[in-house]
Protein 1
Amino acid sequence: MQETVQHTPRILVISNYRGFHTVRPEAEMFIGLAQYGFQIHIMTYEDSEYTERFREAGIQVINFHPEKKLSGAEIRFIRDYLTSNRIDILHLFNNAAIINGIQAAKNLPVKVMLYRGYEGHIHWYDPLAYLAFLHPRVNKIICNSQGVEEYLQRQLFFGKEKTITINKGHRLEWYEHIRATDVRAELNLPSDSFLVVNVANNRKFKGIPYLLKAFNKIPNELPVYLILVGNDMKTSSNLDIINNGGKADKIKLLGFRKDAMSIVAGCDVFALASLYGESITKSVIEAMALGVAPVITDIPGNRELVNDGVNGLVVPARNADALCEAVLKLYDDKVLCKRFGENSRAHIRNHLNLDQTILQTRELYESLLQYNRR
């Protein structure tokens, strides 16, 4: 029988906290856990955006992050810290941290917890998977969505009880300072333009060609415009679809923009055409928090985001016709579009909020250690 932990639990986190907006939900979760009284230790880069905030919250920050997988020196560093600080839970967030951290925990009385933020690339038949998520030393795997958990369950022959879904929560107040860009004025578009936006770095699983094909099906006389924000949108295949679709003047490729959220706030609909592999998509959460109506594909990872017909529309992946119809539905019914935006903010507040994430993680820690808070 596992011995009950009597002292305040000591947690060692290894993660990369560079990039303020990208890491904010995760970082703020640990600040919240520290406020609950957990002794949080974080190994990360000293120049991370959150280093000062962590220390202000009483979190011990160690200037270290593993750079190589199966590095003997890095494994020893982590192991020495685990033993000298009598760590109870080792919480690991990326590949280098996971592979080295698991090795460092060998034969130590520490619980090993992993985070998985996207679906795919773990297979029961791949020997390398047993160095990480399928390693028998792992006690728990936190999945960022039900779709990710279901995928992992299919790869685990034993220990299916190891997985749990805890969404990375947000706070609406993080977005209150965002001021909408006047996109119509900036791009010299008609005042009655209906703006559909997508923010992504163009990768195959993002499904941008399907979004472009869907847009090309919209009747040309309608003042509907597509705004694409992100790197690598001007690929030859994308440009072929644009140039052959007869709507090149209504598709705006803005590239990378630091003010991407302000642009999103100035649009009417956020359209996600992703094909596979994603968990809860951060750019959609941001759009929803800004009150922009979402249209998303039905890939498993985004299941928790949109209730079809309640706070947005859900369409089949790889279906340009359905995506086009969804956009037209919101163009034709501006009241519905606005209501979806309002309901999306409520959905974030009620179902994807940070306080829930902190509480669920706290309960998981305490359950794992059989720790009874007095």
Protein 2
Amino acid sequence: MKSLFLSLGTLLLIAFYCDAAVLYSTAPVTCCNKFSTFKIPESRVSEIKKTHGSCLRQGFIVKTVTGRRICFKQSDDWVQKPFYRKRISEGSGRKREQW
């Protein structure tokens, strides 16, 4: 009887720790260490994302039509406008604008 309780207790303990490991694992996070200072024409931008909240330096990651990813500061106006315009169009239920 003791071995049954010991086995069940061990099994529950293992299940708890395995579940906790999955719960607290994090997805790959992309942060920026350096920021570019030049402006990219909006016609060359295919995607804009904000850096993860856990990053030390907040900014935008811009993906160009050629697949290149470039970091820009969050304070850069030229990258803020298309980012927020895209978010508004996605939230309104309208078809996404191509810019």
